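Q: I'm writing up a methods section and want to include an example of the input and output format. Could you take the sequence below and give the corresponding predicted C-alpha coordinates, formatted cleanly so I can copy it straight into the document?
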Amino acid sequence: MPEDFESSPAASRRRGRIASFDTGYEVEFDFPQRTDPPSLRYMLAAVPRTGSTFLAHLLWRTGCLGSPLEYLDFSSEGHQGHLCSSPDGQIASWRVALATRTSPNGAFGFKSFLMQLRNLARDNEALLDMLQPTQIVYVMRRDRVAHAVSYARAHLTGVWCEEQANGANEQVDYSFEALRRAESWIEAQEEQWERLFDKLGVTPLRLWYEDVVERPDVTVEAVAGHLGVVLDPAAGVEVPAIRKQTGGDARHWAAAYARDRAAAPRPDARG
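A: Here is the clean output for your methods example:
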Protein backbone atom coordinates (compact mmCIF):
# COMPACT_ATOMS: atom_id res chain seq x y z
CA MET A 1 0.00 0.00 0.00
CA PRO A 2 1.40 3.43 -0.83
CA GLU A 3 2.93 5.17 2.17
CA ASP A 4 0.99 8.38 1.46
CA PHE A 5 -2.33 6.55 1.44
CA GLU A 6 -5.02 8.30 3.49
CA SER A 7 -7.97 6.15 4.43
CA SER A 8 -10.36 8.30 6.46
CA PRO A 9 -11.64 11.79 7.25
CA ALA A 10 -8.44 12.33 9.25
CA ALA A 11 -7.07 14.31 6.31
CA SER A 12 -9.94 16.75 6.57
CA ARG A 13 -9.29 17.24 10.25
CA ARG A 14 -5.67 18.08 9.49
CA ARG A 15 -6.89 20.80 7.19
CA GLY A 16 -9.19 22.23 9.85
CA ARG A 17 -12.35 21.38 7.92
CA ILE A 18 -14.17 19.35 10.57
CA ALA A 19 -17.57 20.87 11.28
CA SER A 20 -19.60 20.75 14.47
CA PHE A 21 -22.13 17.95 14.05
CA ASP A 22 -23.25 14.70 15.65
CA THR A 23 -20.67 12.07 14.80
CA GLY A 24 -22.58 9.12 16.25
CA TYR A 25 -19.93 8.39 18.84
CA GLU A 26 -21.63 10.48 21.51
CA VAL A 27 -22.88 8.63 24.59
CA GLU A 28 -26.49 9.58 23.87
CA PHE A 29 -26.38 7.15 20.94
CA ASP A 30 -25.23 4.19 23.05
CA PHE A 31 -27.31 1.08 23.42
CA PRO A 32 -28.10 -0.05 26.99
CA GLN A 33 -24.86 -1.17 28.60
CA ARG A 34 -24.34 -4.90 28.78
CA THR A 35 -21.94 -7.18 30.63
CA ASP A 36 -22.22 -10.26 28.42
CA PRO A 37 -20.02 -10.42 25.31
CA PRO A 38 -21.70 -10.04 21.91
CA SER A 39 -23.19 -13.20 20.46
CA LEU A 40 -22.32 -11.94 16.96
CA ARG A 41 -19.34 -9.89 15.80
CA TYR A 42 -19.06 -8.66 12.25
CA MET A 43 -16.79 -6.28 10.42
CA LEU A 44 -17.96 -3.79 7.81
CA ALA A 45 -14.94 -3.73 5.52
CA ALA A 46 -14.51 -0.96 3.00
CA VAL A 47 -12.30 1.09 0.75
CA PRO A 48 -12.89 4.83 1.30
CA ARG A 49 -15.59 6.51 -0.80
CA THR A 50 -17.82 3.46 -1.14
CA GLY A 51 -20.69 4.77 0.99
CA SER A 52 -19.61 2.74 4.01
CA THR A 53 -20.74 5.39 6.52
CA PHE A 54 -24.16 5.59 4.86
CA LEU A 55 -24.40 1.79 5.01
CA ALA A 56 -23.23 1.71 8.63
CA HIS A 57 -26.00 4.09 9.64
CA LEU A 58 -28.59 2.08 7.73
CA LEU A 59 -27.62 -1.03 9.67
CA TRP A 60 -27.44 0.81 12.96
CA ARG A 61 -30.93 2.28 12.45
CA THR A 62 -32.46 -1.20 12.63
CA GLY A 63 -31.52 -1.50 16.31
CA CYS A 64 -30.66 -5.13 15.60
CA LEU A 65 -27.26 -4.91 13.86
CA GLY A 66 -25.17 -2.97 16.35
CA SER A 67 -23.78 0.41 15.36
CA PRO A 68 -20.86 -0.44 13.04
CA LEU A 69 -18.76 2.72 13.26
CA GLU A 70 -14.98 3.24 13.23
CA TYR A 71 -14.06 2.21 16.75
CA LEU A 72 -10.52 1.48 15.56
CA ASP A 73 -9.73 5.00 14.35
CA PHE A 74 -6.94 5.93 16.75
CA SER A 75 -5.11 8.21 14.34
CA SER A 76 -3.83 11.37 15.99
CA GLU A 77 -6.42 13.41 14.10
CA GLY A 78 -9.32 10.99 14.59
CA HIS A 79 -12.21 11.09 17.05
CA GLN A 80 -10.07 9.04 19.48
CA GLY A 81 -6.82 10.83 18.75
CA HIS A 82 -6.08 11.20 22.44
CA LEU A 83 -5.45 7.42 22.45
CA CYS A 84 -3.07 7.36 19.49
CA SER A 85 -0.07 6.54 21.72
CA SER A 86 -1.90 4.48 24.34
CA PRO A 87 -2.35 0.79 23.48
CA ASP A 88 -3.94 0.15 26.88
CA GLY A 89 -6.34 3.05 26.35
CA GLN A 90 -7.27 1.69 22.94
CA ILE A 91 -8.09 -1.69 24.44
CA ALA A 92 -10.19 -0.01 27.13
CA SER A 93 -12.03 1.98 24.45
CA TRP A 94 -12.72 -1.21 22.49
CA ARG A 95 -14.17 -2.84 25.59
CA VAL A 96 -16.43 0.18 26.13
CA ALA A 97 -17.63 -0.14 22.52
CA LEU A 98 -18.42 -3.82 23.07
CA ALA A 99 -20.42 -2.94 26.18
CA THR A 100 -22.30 0.05 24.79
CA ARG A 101 -22.53 -0.45 21.02
CA THR A 102 -23.85 -4.01 20.98
CA SER A 103 -27.55 -3.98 20.17
CA PRO A 104 -29.86 -5.66 22.71
CA ASN A 105 -30.07 -8.81 20.58
CA GLY A 106 -26.32 -9.33 20.97
CA ALA A 107 -25.08 -8.08 17.57
CA PHE A 108 -21.91 -5.99 17.43
CA GLY A 109 -20.41 -4.52 14.28
CA PHE A 110 -17.44 -2.32 13.55
CA LYS A 111 -16.40 -0.56 10.37
CA SER A 112 -12.77 -0.64 9.32
CA PHE A 113 -10.48 0.59 6.59
CA LEU A 114 -7.26 -1.31 5.94
CA MET A 115 -5.10 1.48 7.32
CA GLN A 116 -6.71 1.09 10.73
CA LEU A 117 -5.93 -2.64 10.81
CA ARG A 118 -2.44 -1.94 9.54
CA ASN A 119 -1.88 0.54 12.36
CA LEU A 120 -3.04 -2.00 14.93
CA ALA A 121 -0.70 -4.64 13.48
CA ARG A 122 2.14 -2.18 13.94
CA ASP A 123 1.20 -0.58 17.27
CA ASN A 124 -1.30 -2.75 19.14
CA GLU A 125 -1.24 -6.40 18.19
CA ALA A 126 -3.05 -7.31 21.41
CA LEU A 127 -6.11 -5.33 20.31
CA LEU A 128 -5.89 -6.71 16.80
CA ASP A 129 -6.14 -10.21 18.27
CA MET A 130 -9.25 -9.17 20.22
CA LEU A 131 -11.33 -8.16 17.19
CA GLN A 132 -12.46 -11.69 16.26
CA PRO A 133 -15.04 -10.95 13.56
CA THR A 134 -16.88 -14.12 12.56
CA GLN A 135 -18.69 -12.45 9.65
CA ILE A 136 -17.67 -9.74 7.19
CA VAL A 137 -19.76 -7.38 5.09
CA TYR A 138 -17.69 -5.85 2.29
CA VAL A 139 -18.89 -2.82 0.35
CA MET A 140 -17.40 -1.93 -3.05
CA ARG A 141 -18.16 0.40 -5.95
CA ARG A 142 -18.86 -0.74 -9.51
CA ASP A 143 -18.16 2.57 -11.23
CA ARG A 144 -14.37 2.73 -11.07
CA VAL A 145 -14.14 6.18 -12.62
CA ALA A 146 -16.67 7.66 -10.18
CA HIS A 147 -14.86 5.96 -7.30
CA ALA A 148 -11.48 7.36 -8.31
CA VAL A 149 -12.95 10.83 -8.80
CA SER A 150 -14.64 10.79 -5.40
CA TYR A 151 -11.49 9.51 -3.68
CA ALA A 152 -9.12 11.95 -5.39
CA ARG A 153 -11.34 14.97 -4.81
CA ALA A 154 -11.87 14.13 -1.13
CA HIS A 155 -8.12 13.75 -0.71
CA LEU A 156 -7.39 17.07 -2.41
CA THR A 157 -10.12 19.10 -0.72
CA GLY A 158 -10.08 17.42 2.68
CA VAL A 159 -13.89 17.16 2.55
CA TRP A 160 -14.90 13.55 3.20
CA CYS A 161 -18.57 14.13 4.00
CA GLU A 162 -21.18 16.83 3.47
CA GLU A 163 -21.14 17.91 7.11
CA GLN A 164 -17.43 18.67 6.89
CA ALA A 165 -17.80 20.98 3.90
CA ASN A 166 -18.99 23.87 6.08
CA GLY A 167 -19.06 26.22 3.12
CA ALA A 168 -15.71 25.04 1.77
CA ASN A 169 -15.11 25.43 -1.96
CA GLU A 170 -15.10 21.95 -3.45
CA GLN A 171 -14.16 23.25 -6.91
CA VAL A 172 -10.62 22.00 -7.44
CA ASP A 173 -8.50 21.85 -10.55
CA TYR A 174 -8.73 18.60 -12.48
CA SER A 175 -5.70 16.37 -11.97
CA PHE A 176 -5.16 13.24 -14.03
CA GLU A 177 -2.24 12.23 -11.82
CA ALA A 178 -4.35 12.54 -8.67
CA LEU A 179 -6.96 10.28 -10.26
CA ARG A 180 -4.40 7.70 -11.36
CA ARG A 181 -2.99 7.69 -7.85
CA ALA A 182 -6.47 7.29 -6.31
CA GLU A 183 -7.27 4.41 -8.64
CA SER A 184 -4.03 2.67 -7.71
CA TRP A 185 -4.88 3.09 -4.02
CA ILE A 186 -8.30 1.57 -4.60
CA GLU A 187 -6.88 -1.43 -6.46
CA ALA A 188 -4.17 -2.00 -3.86
CA GLN A 189 -6.69 -1.98 -1.03
CA GLU A 190 -9.07 -4.30 -2.82
CA GLU A 191 -6.24 -6.78 -3.35
CA GLN A 192 -5.23 -6.59 0.30
CA TRP A 193 -8.80 -7.05 1.51
CA GLU A 194 -9.07 -10.20 -0.61
CA ARG A 195 -5.86 -11.57 0.89
CA LEU A 196 -7.13 -10.82 4.39
CA PHE A 197 -10.46 -12.56 3.74
CA ASP A 198 -8.55 -15.63 2.58
CA LYS A 199 -6.31 -15.51 5.63
CA LEU A 200 -9.29 -15.26 7.99
CA GLY A 201 -11.13 -17.99 6.13
CA VAL A 202 -14.27 -15.84 6.01
CA THR A 203 -16.42 -15.42 2.90
CA PRO A 204 -17.79 -11.87 3.02
CA LEU A 205 -21.16 -10.65 1.92
CA ARG A 206 -20.25 -8.44 -1.04
CA LEU A 207 -22.32 -5.32 -1.55
CA TRP A 208 -22.14 -2.59 -4.16
CA TYR A 209 -22.44 1.10 -3.36
CA GLU A 210 -24.81 1.66 -6.25
CA ASP A 211 -27.20 -1.03 -4.99
CA VAL A 212 -27.04 0.22 -1.41
CA VAL A 213 -28.06 3.71 -2.47
CA GLU A 214 -30.78 2.52 -4.87
CA ARG A 215 -32.27 -0.20 -2.66
CA PRO A 216 -31.34 0.44 0.98
CA ASP A 217 -34.14 -1.71 2.42
CA VAL A 218 -33.11 -4.67 0.28
CA THR A 219 -29.52 -4.16 1.39
CA VAL A 220 -30.43 -4.20 5.07
CA GLU A 221 -32.43 -7.39 4.63
CA ALA A 222 -29.51 -9.00 2.79
CA VAL A 223 -27.09 -8.10 5.58
CA ALA A 224 -29.44 -9.37 8.26
CA GLY A 225 -29.96 -12.60 6.36
CA HIS A 226 -26.23 -13.12 5.90
CA LEU A 227 -25.59 -12.53 9.59
CA GLY A 228 -28.51 -14.69 10.67
CA VAL A 229 -30.26 -11.81 12.43
CA VAL A 230 -34.04 -11.45 12.60
CA LEU A 231 -34.99 -7.79 12.26
CA ASP A 232 -37.56 -6.43 14.68
CA PRO A 233 -39.24 -3.24 13.42
CA ALA A 234 -39.97 -2.25 17.03
CA ALA A 235 -36.26 -2.21 17.82
CA GLY A 236 -35.43 0.64 15.42
CA VAL A 237 -33.42 3.57 16.78
CA GLU A 238 -32.80 7.15 15.68
CA VAL A 239 -29.25 7.87 14.55
CA PRO A 240 -27.50 10.93 13.08
CA ALA A 241 -28.47 11.57 9.47
CA ILE A 242 -25.94 11.13 6.69
CA ARG A 243 -26.17 13.69 3.91
CA LYS A 244 -24.88 12.84 0.44
CA GLN A 245 -22.20 15.18 -0.92
CA THR A 246 -23.17 17.29 -3.89
CA GLY A 247 -19.99 16.40 -5.78
CA GLY A 248 -19.11 19.86 -7.05
CA ASP A 249 -17.62 19.52 -10.54
CA ALA A 250 -17.23 15.72 -10.22
CA ARG A 251 -19.03 15.09 -13.52
CA HIS A 252 -16.46 17.16 -15.38
CA TRP A 253 -13.70 15.21 -13.65
CA ALA A 254 -15.31 11.87 -14.52
CA ALA A 255 -15.70 12.75 -18.19
CA ALA A 256 -12.14 14.07 -18.46
CA TYR A 257 -10.69 11.07 -16.63
CA ALA A 258 -12.58 8.53 -18.75
CA ARG A 259 -11.16 10.24 -21.82
CA ASP A 260 -7.60 10.57 -20.51
CA ARG A 261 -7.48 7.11 -18.95
CA ALA A 262 -8.45 5.51 -22.25
CA ALA A 263 -5.54 7.26 -23.94
CA ALA A 264 -2.92 6.58 -21.26
CA PRO A 265 -1.02 3.37 -20.39
CA ARG A 266 -2.22 1.62 -17.25
CA PRO A 267 -0.15 2.34 -14.13
CA ASP A 268 1.03 -0.38 -11.76
CA ALA A 269 -1.85 -0.98 -9.34
CA ARG A 270 0.62 -1.06 -6.45
CA GLY A 271 1.78 2.48 -7.15
